[in-house]
Structures are given as structure tokens and as C-alpha cells.
Amino acid sequence: MTTTPQPDAAVAPASDRDAFRAAPLDEQSRTRLAENGLEYRRVEVGDDGFSSWLQVTARGFQDGERSDEQIAAARERSGYRRVTGVFDPAAPMADAPAATIASWLGELSVPGGRAIPSAAISAVTVSPTHRRRGIARAMLEGELRTAHAAGIPMAMLTVSESTLYGRYGFAPAAAAAAWRIETRRATWIGPRPEGRVDFISRERLRELLPVLHDRSRRRVPGEIDVPGGHWDNFAGTRPDAEKAGDKRAVHYTDASGEVRGLAVYTVRENHDDFTKATVNVGYLLAETDDAYAALWRFLLELDLVAEVQASELAADEPLLWMIADQRAATVTLTDHQYVRILDVPRALETRRYPVAATVLLDVSDPLGLAGGRFLLEVGAEGAARVTTLPEGETREGAITVTLGIQELSAVYLGGVSLATLAAARRVQSGDIETAARVFGWHTAPRLSIWY
Ligand SMILES: CC(C)(COP(=O)(O)OP(=O)(O)OC[C@H]1O[C@@H](n2cnc3c(N)ncnc32)[C@H](O)[C@@H]1OP(=O)(O)O)[C@@H](O)C(=O)NCCC(=O)NCCS
């Protein structure tokens, strides 16, 4: 059996990715940092400086020092990233940055089975010796201005703390659900598909993960094209992987023998009661409803297991309707995928809409990057045309919506209703019910990884 990738055309082609990686640093942020005696510099992944950049980033997240093996592995898989540091020439270890940030051009899936180029931001740390002097703000604004100048319509990130990024226009747009399921209480009432579940090697899992993900990610708003290093982490296939031997991998093949789903999990024994082990699902990827049902059923019916845990699931999982006792599942929702629109017309024209309507959006942007007045005209087939309107111009019959770029970003993937934001007094509209229907979507957005 062979599984061949059938990727859709890239919306972020290699040439655009290279151009963003090589784009010069933002002059405004460079000047602001220089006024405080700090240097804003790119760090090349192949240079010696990358290892101290990495150590500072790990320390910033309160993590331990990286080993030579881990540094070598990180170097090998970081080539796609634009790596930047802020340096303090007066510090005793002036070669190590006082602050770090990394970014790259990726793809974000949006409602309607499409994707949009998006600047992913990661590794934001400011050394505790340099905190609260505006360094993070300079780096964030700098990367957003650079992405905007490069014509990238969207930015995205996952966060350690929820309070950090709203001020730059980012909004939580896809929640993550963490599940704990009491397996004996759950009782499977879902389908029992005809295909089969089999164990596979971690190496085979590593091979299949990107293939299946690329085939299915555009159907799920919020998902991104996953950098290869993440798949190594899930599969435990790198030399620096910890406890790789604990990972068990299975795949689901349909009746024709095609691989349609994958799962990797670990089992933690309960030494007081060997019938009560806990399964932790590292990653579950299903291309079809059958694969989804078969893999979850396999996990929930494992012998000697009392609880299954999984995280980064969608807020609205079919799994809840495949178990007899919904209270067997404890589900906790957390903000997860943050997005920030940088180009309103392009962002709005890329996604699809469930309702035909004409909406006039009056959008404010604290960073002055994407605000303005935009006429969104959605046709019967759900595609939209967006026109930028001059200040003060209105359109007969259009529903007006006044909101900030953060609120528009929050509703963009369909994860929250405009009506909810209106009730929270964060959005105003002459006809909020219709406006909310226009921006709604039938599946909850999801992002299955951290980055
Ligand atoms: C979070 C962190 C990057 C902030 O860096 P910093 O240089 O001190 O931040 P700045 O001085 O530029 O502050 C920028 C703004 O964020 C606010 N802010 C900074 N840290 C904050 C925190 N932990 N909680 C809430 N607000 C915070 C500041 O008040 C400031 O607000 P304002 O500009 O609107 O007045 C830094 O403390 C850090 O590295 N923390 C550990 C790693 C981490 O959590 N990184 C974020 C990864 S997602």
C-alpha cells in the first residue's frame, strides 16, 4: 500500500517564504531599541549565535539548558524560520540576546476549504533582566509591520499567557478543548466502521503524518501547515526525543486499504490498580468520519485503561455524540489559536460565507495597519467581493458593523459569533442577527498543535 500526497496548490509558495525569511528588520523598531542602547539583529540558523539564541529562548520559557544534541536537532529543523534577537552590548554575555522572536510564512485554513498566507510568530521571550522596557512591543510591532510591508494578509500565534497579544490586534480565534474521558462510563455508541486499526512503527507514523495532514487540513479552519519538526516530536523519531519508546502508533485503513487516520498515544500505568491505566493521546488525525470513529473507539475500548486524555481538540467534537454517557467526558476549553488580520479585503475575500448579504465594516486598528471602511458583498455561492470605501461613504441597504481589528480577527474563523461580541459590547451593528449569520460557520475551528 502506498499513500501519495495530493496537496492543494500552496498559497504561500517557497519564493514568498524565502522573501519573508530574508526581509529586513523593521526600521521603526530598530530605532526605538537603539535609543535604549539595544541592537535588533537577525540570527542565522547556521551560525554559532543560534545556539545562544536557543538557550536564551529555553530560559525565557523557564525551561532547562539544551544539550548539544538538542541544539543540533533544532538547528537542522529551523531553517524555515526568520530568527531575531535583541542584544545588549553592555551585558557581560553580550553575544547572547536579551530577547528573542522567530517567525515564518505559513498557511492558515479558513472557512470554505481554503487557506490564506499567514505570518506565524513564535519564541517571544524577553530576559527577566530586561523585562517591561517595551522590548516585546518593539519586536511584535516590528514583525507585524514587516509582514504587512511584505503583503502578508494575516498573522498568527499560540500563547503562553492570554493577556499579552490583544494590544497588537491578535484575538483568540480557535479554542482548544482538553478532554478527560472515563472509559468504562463512556460506552461506545458510535459507528463501527469496516476498515481496520493496526499498529505501525513510529517511523511509518512520521512518514504518514504530514501526508494525511496536508490532505485534510484545509477542511478545518484554524489548522496550519505544520513545520516538520513538530511531526518528529509527535512521532518521537528524532535522536533527541525523550521517552520515544513509550509512544504507540496505530493507523486506520479503509476497506480499500487506503490509510485514512493515525493516532499516537502513551499509557501511564496505575501501580495501585493495574486495571486503571491512563492513556494520553499525543495526536489523532482522521481524514474521514470512519477513521475518526474507528480510532476513538479503539482508544476508548483499550483494556486495563480507566481514563483517556486528549488535548487541542475542537470545541465541538463529534466524539461527544459517540458515547452513551456524555458526563463521562470532562471538557475544558482554552483560548489557543490567535490570529490578526493585516489586510482586511484579502482576508475577507479568501474565506467563504453561509449567507448572501452586503455588510459595511468600519474597522479600527490600534497599530494603523489594517483599519478602514470596507464593503463586503457576499454572493449566493458564498464568495465575497470587498471594496475599500472612502471615509464617510455609506451604501444603501448594507448592514453596518463597527468593530476593532481584534474583534474582526476573533470572528474570522467562525469560532465566536458577532452576536456574542455585540452582547459583550465589543461590536456595534444595525442588524446584528444577520451580520452574525454572515460570519458564522458550521464547523468549530481547531488547531491541533502548539507552535
Ligand atoms: C511576556 C514577555 C515577552 C513580555 O516582555 P516585555 O519586554 O517585558 O514586554 P513589554 O515591556 O514590551 O510590554 C508590552 C506590553 O505588554 C504588557 N505585558 C508584558 N508582560 C505582561 C504580562 N506577563 N502580563 C500582562 N501584560 C504584560 C506590558 O504591560 C506592556 O503593555 P503596554 O505596552 O500596552 O503598556 C516577557 O515577560 C517574557 O519573556 N515572559 C516569559 C516568556 C513568555 O511568556 N513569552 C510569551 C510567549 S507567547
CATH architecture group name of the largest domain: 3-Layer(aba) Sandwich
> What is the domain total for the residues?
3
What string, H for helix and E for strand, traces the elements in order?
HHEHHEEEHEEHEHHEEEHEEHEEEEHHEH
**Terminal-residue CA separation:** 32 Å
| Largest β-sheet summary | 12 strands, mixed
| Shape field | globular
The parts where pLDDT drops under 50 for at least 5 residues are 1-6
Bound molecules: coenzyme A
Structural class: alpha+beta
Give the integer mean of the pLDDT values: 96
What is the overall number of helices?
13
The total count of strands amounts to: 17
Family: Belongs to the acetyltransferase Eis family.
Region (Disordered): 1-28
Protein name: GNAT family N-acetyltransferase
Subunit structure: Homohexamer; trimer of dimers.
Element layout with pairings:
Layout: H1 14-22, H2 27-35, E1 39-42, H3 49-60, H4 68-76, E2 82-87, E3 99-110, E4 114-126, H5 135-149, E5 154-157, E6 171-182, H6 183-186, E7 196-200, H7 202-216, H8 228-235, E8 248-253, E9 259-268, E10 277-286, H9 289-300, E11 305-313, E12 329-341, H10 344-350, E13 357-364, E14 372-378, E15 384-389, E16 399-404, H11 405-412, H12 418-423, E17 427-429, H13 432-439
Parallel strand pairs: 4-5, 10-11, 13-16
Antiparallel strand pairs: 1-2, 2-3, 3-4, 5-12, 6-11, 6-12, 7-8, 8-9, 9-10, 13-14, 14-15, 16-17
Helix pairs in contact: 2-5, 7-8
Residues 60-61, 124-126, 131-137, 159-161, 163-164, 167 line the site of coenzyme A.
